Amino acid sequence: MQADDNNQLLDRAFGLVESGNTVEARALFEQVCQQDTDNAEAWMMRGIVDVELGNSDAAVVGLDKALQLDPSLPEAWCYRARIHRDRDDTKQALHCAEKAMELDPDYGEAFLLGGALYGALDRVEESEQCCRKAVALLPAAPDAHLNLGNALMQRGSVSEACQHIAVATQLQPDLLAAWLLLGRGCARLGELEKSAAAYRNALQLKPDSEEAHYGLGFTAYQQNRYEDAVAGFARALEINPAYAEAANSLGTACQAVGRFDEALAAFEQALQIQPDFAEALFGKASVLIEFARQPEAITCLRRVLQIQPDFVDA
Q: What region does 292 belong to: left with phi over 0, alpha with psi -120 to 50, or beta?
């Protein structure tokens, strides 16, 4: 009789989860856990609901109890992986995700998570394999295409990467990370107009995106639109004054339009942020030569070669 009552409670709880009423569902799962302490499914669902409610400590208790009772629950392993990931324990997160993938080879969410975790650990080949499986299992999931695009970009397959990232933007037009990655990918392919369009879409979503402003500056510079490049790099640096690459690029763009005082200031700012920035040291040296300050320029160039002996231009 008690077992029947618990099954009815579980059915009600699952219905509440489907309708989005997670708080009441959690109370029913808890009730079953107290009445049937060996019910692995109830403990797992209590843990999963706690994850969705943001109660990670309580979620760990429920999920670990479920896995103690039944280690063959792929969903419990996957949600345990999510908690480890959110706590920056990537290796343990991957261990749990691998358990989930092994237990259920058709569990798309596990492969989606696993692909991202392999990528975070620079295990690029495994990341690509995992992401491809996630796309096959979850073809309408924008994150699956985005993760695969990221993995392919890391492996140098930029054209295919951009195809999947573009799919991600079609499936979810407000996915900022996809527009930024598409901008980088198109720039690497030399498709500068597409790159700029992607960055502009990113700025529609986040007007203060330093990466998008930097990307627009980069595409403008590549098209010899140096004043526009100055504007893009300057805005990126205004948003993030610790952005050394933006300061260096701003110096280069200012130099291209003959604004040498501003160029020198930008290179010096880059070097304040990153003292061993060889490109910024070289840029500073080239501006110092414009000002006929050769001894200082030579000192900079010597420092460049100390940092990077194979620096060609120095």
A: left
